[in-house]
Amino acid sequence: MNDPRALSRRTALASLAGAALAGTAAFPASATGHHRRTVRFATFNASLNRAAEGALVTDLSTPDNVQARNAAETIQRVDPDVLLINEFDYDSDGTAARLFQRNYLAVSQNGARPVRYRYRFTGPVNTGVASGIDFDGRDGAVTTPGSDAYGQDAFGYGWFPGQYGMLVLSKFPIDTRAVRTFQRFLWKDMPGNLLPADYYSDEARAVFRLSSKSHWDVPVRIGHDTVHFLVSHPTPPTFDGPEDRNGRRNHDEIRLWADYISGRRRSFYLYDDKGRRGGLRPGARFVIAGDQNADPHDGDSYAHAIRQLLDHPAVNLPAAPPASAGAVEAASRQGGANTTHTGNPAYDTADFADSAPGNLRVDYVIPSKGLTPVTNGVFWPTSDDPLYRLVGSGWPVPTSDHRLVWQDVRVA
């Protein structure tokens, strides 16, 4: 793949994927008429997480951290207007976010044009927040950070508070006073929830939070219009046992957004961290983004969890999902579990272990009705592309095991 802002459309994989894929072209994020504007929304699990609290701030304090430079260059090559970064360690002062913007995004990486975001939003997440409860029933309630046992008993798995956090960056104003967060919403309060019946104690069920990180409704002002950027990062549907507690949680984390955009009859039960109830008003425009950890065809997700969004009547899917030539090449080269997959490898967004689960489509940018989807793509260059160094062949991972995914939409 080449610079998505510089090249025209190309068909890359008709012989490999069985269909012509959109290459790297995109409309710039500028007005395309008196009442229309094209805006690029994107999601990127950049793996900017660290094993110890404060380590990300240390790494970003200088401009020479290789992985951070790679992540910044990836963002610069695609140049999104509104971006969610998953797995960006949270600190209450926002220091890591400021350093990443100042020392990396605002500095040209290998000739890529710097990108500047005037607006950002970040907030606390459940990962690494001690619950004081023995969730896994093994070691008692572990409340000292820094171990797997602590992570297992946290509200969301993490070795310290804020690990695997989220960050929203935007070139358009964010209505921060209208942001809604659902960090503390309890799983038990979702009607018809999938809480495993016999795994958690009554004490655990009483306090267990649904969101493994958080769910944020971030309103973005685009001219005179508002688009709600609905972002999250559900838990992987793995690392559990026959009770499938993580698969069930992943399903219901995805369901939260499906109910949120479904009107009062389905969203009435929701309450945000300020106590406001209900979901998005009918007709409001939104873009759902994030590493959903669920593939529509392959992998271990519970009951095809992501179909709750992909098949939702309120969304307006593009004619074809975001795709790349690099994903098809990787699946063919790596083999393993990829040979048993039923989904089109062109739509994969993550390069996971070849033995299991293989490469999957887990990262999404899903626009609503009222927005017109146009060009999209996955930043996954092929091995003959100079930018291949940003994704690599699986191990070691130069940047992240996920790829940046973007979707351009016309806002009328």
Largest sheet, spatial ordering of strands? 3-4-2-1-11-10
Please state the oligomeric state of the protein chains shown. Answer: single chain
How is the main sheet built? Answer: 6 strands, mixed
**Beta fraction of the residues?**
15-25%
Brief description of this entry?
The chain is an alpha+beta fold and 412 residues long. The protein has helices at residues 14-17, 55-60, 66-78, 95-105, 148-153, 202-207, 245-260, 264-267, 307-310, 325-334; strands spanning 37-48, 82-88, 119-121, 166-170, 180-181, 216-222, 225-232, 285-291, 363-367, 371-378, 405-411.
Could you walk me through the main structural features you see in this protein, from its secondary elements to its overall organization?
With 412 residues, the protein is of the alpha+beta class. The protein has ten helices and eleven strands. The chain has helices at residues 14-17, 55-60, 66-78, 95-105, 148-153, 202-207, 245-260, 264-267, 307-310, 325-334; strands at 37-48, 82-88, 119-121, 166-170, 180-181, 216-222, 225-232, 285-291, 363-367, 371-378, 405-411. It has a six-stranded mixed β-sheet, with helices on one face.
List the helices and strands and how they pair.
Elements: H1 14-17, E1 37-48, H2 55-60, H3 66-78, E2 82-88, H4 95-105, E3 119-121, H5 148-153, E4 166-170, E5 180-181, H6 202-207, E6 216-222, E7 225-232, H7 245-260, H8 264-267, E8 285-291, H9 307-310, H10 325-334, E9 363-367, E10 371-378, E11 405-411
Parallel strand pairs: 1-2, 7-8
Antiparallel strand pairs: 1-11, 2-4, 3-4, 5-6, 6-7, 8-9, 10-11
